[in-house]
Queue: 3 jobs
Job 1
Amino acid sequence: MSLKVSDIGEKELVKYIISNSKEITPDDTAITKFGSTNLISTSDMLIQSRHFPENMSYFDMGFKVVTVNVSDLAAMGAEPLGFLLAIAVPKDLDLDSFKELIDGVLSACDYYSIPLIGGDTNEASEIIISGTALGLCDRPLMMDTYSIGDVIAVTGDIGHAALGFNLDVLDNVYVKKALKPLARIKEGIALRKSGATSATDITDGLASELHHIKRDLFGFMIYEELLGISDEYRQYCENLDLNYLDLVLHVGEDFELLFTIPKDRLKYLDIDYRVIGEVTDSDVVEITLENGFVESIENRGYEHYVCE
């Protein structure tokens, strides 16, 4: 019996594509020599039934497709250059809804200072939006060029979007993070200029990203007490019968940057950040819990194709 794509999941499919192409950069984006600099390019597709919660507005759908692509530019420390939009919609979609969606795209392009420069339209049974973001960068930040002793940090709170997806109120900081995440483009540029050694964006969960960027003979130690999990967050999770660490580690959609940097370079960072751990020589990904116990962090996060 032949394997199905659901048997191996998205990351293994991507590995297959990369292994059979000599030109693909195994990082957050493609990197192409472009005169005296590098063209940074990335593409991401969003499907209504898979990526947009039912309570998400058409405006926020449009905004998000730009965010997820710009977030990859941010992880490389790139300066935005241009955005391409390919969109397919049902023929019976209200015109006002289509206009609201495009308004969201244009608003996000203004917010990130990345002009909409072209694209394509088509018909589909549901809304499908594919974006391509282009940027420029002399020295891109790679995802796995860290050294033992570097600290591990994030640009903001993680796990907030994961909680927001489980709440049914609108005027709430967690729900806002779920419905309208923001890419950290300015932070990515600041990281590159300040001497960060590596970076990636958190889309599939902290645990999944850590395992994805791990190299042989290197390890990561994360400290629960440094994750900034508030009493309010824990209480929400308890009320909903959710494991707070599971949300923080394994869900994602925060679009914060996960980065490494030598400890003596932290003083040059002029952005908000939170140190959460360190690069070690343990060859494992683990967490020190608040009670002092050390546990391995399971390689689990959001992944396309895998049956839930």
Note: Residues 304-308 have pLDDT under 50 and may be disordered.
Job 2
Amino acid sequence: MAGTPQALPRTFPLPTVPLEDAVRRQFALVECVARHFEGEQFLTADLGVATGPGRPHTTARAEAVLADFFGARAAALVQGAGTGAIRAALGAVLSPGDPLLIHRAPVYRTTAVTLRGLGVRTEEADFNDPAALGSALASGRFRWAYVQHTRQRLGDSYDLAEVLARCREAGVRTLVDDNYAVMRVPASGVELGADASCFSLFKLHGPEGVGAVVGSADLVARVHEDNYSGGGQVQGAQALDALRALARVPVLWAVQSQVGEEVAARLTAGEVPGVAEVRLANAQDRCLLIRLTRPVARELPALAARYGAAPHPVGSNSRYEVAPLFYRMSGSSLDDAPGLADWTIRVNPMRAGADLVLDILRRALRDACARGDVTACSSTRS
């Protein structure tokens, strides 16, 4: 049984990058490419454990571009996308049994697997509570803290820059999971003072399976040292592919953020019957959380797919995703708020405009009514 609808909590969306600033970021990235690649180098690629860097020269140049762009000392491209980047960074600095400070919230599922596999001892503090964070840092138990840039709980409100500053003052080094945030927010974790940012380039329209660790020289050197196998390298062609894709991302992400805000405003104004409330949230990727007036959330994604919506994510803003995504709430969000499962859907516009997103939602809700739940399209808000 669906039970009583659970109201959406207040959310604290991360700041986005205005379109004009996104254009400047695109230009800045291309300037970094020009500093590290000459002529034919950006059109040709090598392979394997090359003499000197121990990885393809093309890959090493691409890493230099990323370090330059993010204002870091070094960068490493790794296999395994964002999860692989997090695993590589944590494995470079922690040993089994080492304590690691994390936020008190459901841990992203693949990160939990990594932490379990590494055998680290996680200890939690509520990063939303400055006193709780200060107490944990003052204990002297931690050398490292791990912070997720996007929200683990829908009601999370901590400011990443402030958390990193508090850790730095206490002598605690920091790793930031920048998946779903990098290039969408004005500054990534490493730009805000973290020792490293870890993120997926697949989520930035890059090739499958490529991730990045961008940060301090000692940490990145250890990542390279651990990844000595030829089969583990990101090959030169993959590295070039990732850079070419990345140059298009800032503007795409800025437009997508604008569309999300427009959809939220129009739904709040009552444009689509059957919607009780809407929130913008960084529930993993920046998206709209739409609570319905009736418990049809579980069936709505399949109905929306009939009208062109993506039926499931591929990489959450991968190159394969063009149509808007209508999907269930994320697993970590439902761990924290299971009562939303029957009432709330997650919508990501991807490359679509607001008109298409609203049209698909309207038609899917109409179909839910036709299947027997007439009140699903009621304009009554609850």
Note: The chain has twelve helices and eleven strands.
Job 3
Amino acid sequence: MPVANAGTPDALVVGAGLAGLACAQDLRSAGIVVRIVEASDGVGGRMRSDRHEGFVIDRGFQVFNTSYPQARRRLTLRRLRLRPFTPGALVHTERGRLRLSDPTRGHRRLSGPMPVRGVAARDLLALGVLSARDMLGPVRPLKHAEDHTTLTALAAAGFSEEFVEGFFRPFLSGVFLEDELETSSRVFHLVWRSMLRGTLCLPVAGIGAVPAQLAEALPAGAVQLESPVERLTDDGVLLRSGREIAARAVVVATGPAGVAALLPGVDLPPYRVVTTYYHSGGSASLGEPILLTDGRRRFLNTCVLSDVVPEYAPPGRNLIATSVLGMDTPGREARVREALAEAYGTGTADWELLTVRTVPDALPAMPPPQPLNRPARVGPGRYVCGDHRATGSVQGALASGARAAREVLRDLGR
């Protein structure tokens, strides 16, 4: 990507993640001269993909949801060459696998996810009511409802403790990266709605294709890579190289560490940590492109990525991604491997551990009461955006960037 031109921008965005790219895109559309400076060697922030021995390795297991309004507005989805997961999920239990699926999607009929066996009638009814309301009803009541924990909301919706523990807790632990179901019920309902209305997919080139396409919409030279910012100045920013860049507006769109360093007065939530183990070996397959969660919570979820996107692995190889909460610690991969042998019903001793990706700031904690968006302006000519200002999702990051752009435009009189 070319180095930015030498002209003085009206606005400078620090960080080329989803929020920063969305902000820059909207500012440019309004006629603002904008530049992005990015500390790393590529765009995307946490949403990046690497090539490793012929495999596509995303930086932690991630999926793309086709229902996100911001993504649909900004991206040409067909260019991403999206490959879908089977709607729903499998849960590995001591009694075998529990399936939560949408059997009618393949017939193009509208339906929410329905388990096919092993579930009490009261839970089927509660699931149908919950899904119909969240999927088909207006979104405003979901956004403005009284906020509780997800656990409290599920109990109020009529689910049995057995179903919450057997399905919702293991499944949602992988969604919100916490296993206490303490996430805001408003966030839960919005995420559940998006899952019902959209399709979870992966781009053929890896999840990094999403921010790459956003960056392509900017003028050549608008993004300056390998340009870490040392500090903000009265007139703009000072790069670590010693170079100063002046701008009337500076938007900090970095991860939480960058925000804390550049805008120390900004309130940040704690972040969830997730580690993903990437294995290849044997003939492991779930028989379809679907997520498998663990009822005993030894791992968050596992998936044969090459069953979803064959291009993720070299010919004749497979790629299995398994995520756990927290850091990679001594002996943990071996314990996960033992659990995977049980879950997949096959030996894993000969599986090759390709690489491990730990993401220390994977997702912000979102306990109730959870504001669904926060103002971007934190001082004269100073703004902040990112998933910590919204709902922690791709939609939230993009929407936060859009809000920052609106506030910059208002302050610049545009």
Note: The longest helix spans residues 394-411.
